[in-house]
Amino acid sequence: MNKPVRRVAIAMLVLFALLVLNANYIQVIKATTYQQDPGNTRVLLEEYERQRGSIV
Based on the structure, what is the number of domains in the chain? Predict the structure, then answer.
């Protein structure tokens, strides 16, 4: 394997490893922050699914 191809392969491996680490960081550490975010559409949808009184 020649040197430029090896450098590109190593760079791609490093970038892929960083991507995996960032995904794990978001899913494990930042999960509660994203779940409690008021701008999260899932939070809004849960609020709309609550039973409310009848309109008279």
Answer: 1
Pick the more confident residue, 26 or 55. 26
Please give the residue range of the domain that contains residue 7.
Answer: 3-48
Model confidence, pTM: 0.61
36 Cβ contact partners less than 8 Å away, ≥ 6 residues apart:
43
**Which of 26, 25, 51, 52 lies closest to 37 in space, CA to CA?**
26
User: What pLDDT is recorded for position 46?
Assistant: 74
For residue 53, tell me if it sits in a domain. Answer: no
C-alpha to C-alpha distances, 30 to 5, 11, 35, 38, 40, nearest whole angstrom: 36, 27, 9, 15, 14
